[in-house]
Amino acid sequence: xxxxxxxxxxxxxxxxxxxxxxxxxxxxxxxxxxxxxxxxxxxxxxxxxxxxxxxxxxxxxxxxxxxxxxxxxxxxxxxxxxxxxxxxxxxxxxxxxxxxxxxxxxxxxxxxxxxxxxxxxxxxxxxxxxxxxxxxxxxxxxxxxxxxxxxxxxxxxxxxxxxxxxxxxxxxxxxxxxxxxxxxxxxxxxxxxxxxxxxxxxxxxxxxxxxxxxxxxxxxxxxxxxxxxxxxxxxxxxxxxxxxxxxxxxxxxxxxxxxxxxxxxxxxxxxxxxxxxxxxxxxxxxxxxxxxxxxxxxxxxxxxxxxxxxxxxxxxxxxxxxxxxx
Length: 326
Description:
Blueprint: H1 2-14, E1 32-38, H2 46-53, H3 56-59, E2 62-68, H4 72-81, E3 87-91, H5 92-100, E4 106-114, E5 117-121, E6 135-138, H6 144-154, E7 164-167, H7 171-180, E8 185-189, E9 201-203, E10 213-220, H8 221-226, H9 228-247, H10 252-256, H11 263-273, H12 291-302, H13 313-316
Parallel strand pairs: 1-2, 1-3, 6-7, 6-8
Antiparallel strand pairs: 3-10, 4-10, 5-8, 5-9
């Protein structure tokens, strides 16, 4: 009890005043508060929402609240910098750029999807090498999908000046632009590709020359330094929830729908993430960090954010929470 109280007091000193109450402190039943940010429609983070719905966070002594951050990387960085959030779940490549630019301070402490990207193109385009001179849809400038696209294109000798990049926002907007002919290609998470576009995938994650972490858990550095036990419990709960999702895919659809996605979309996402095409680091029991993929992410981000050059895995990831073996 004394240890829990000390942990709660230290977390309160670290936290700001964002949604869900300040971090730290305890609820009336003695749970430690952690405030989490995620992007709307983040189906790939289904284990997080399952951990909330099935009580895994509470069983590990945590009171976890979640806030949707709709403004992308810039808004998320601002929330972290102001200490309105303690943890964020989403695109690892964006945080690496923010760490390098010193707009945030923290590290990746776990991952939940790995190599989860495909390139989808309009009819008539069958290979990445054909994208020179074409229009590529991206979510936002500096976003993880832009970083991935440029890294992939560079392997075909295509530079950023050889293409037109159109910032369109989320997955649904990019799919619509592709289907209407407004863009020629875009990157999509494997789990969000509509059935009618599966035949137009020109590069799968498995075949990609660029190896990246897709979805990761990022924590503020002050929390890492002072509240490792609480963050370890957070990662443990995520792993337990991932195991539950694999064992209960139909029941997990309701948890996935907390992202705002439809039941059909969630069912497909869960089927892919738990199926044979998924790799060991996606929804693993440990939330383990794939260090070679971290290095690949560093290399990809460095092409867009020069400050990343010279950073190592230890500068952006802390493996003491989840380890490196799924």
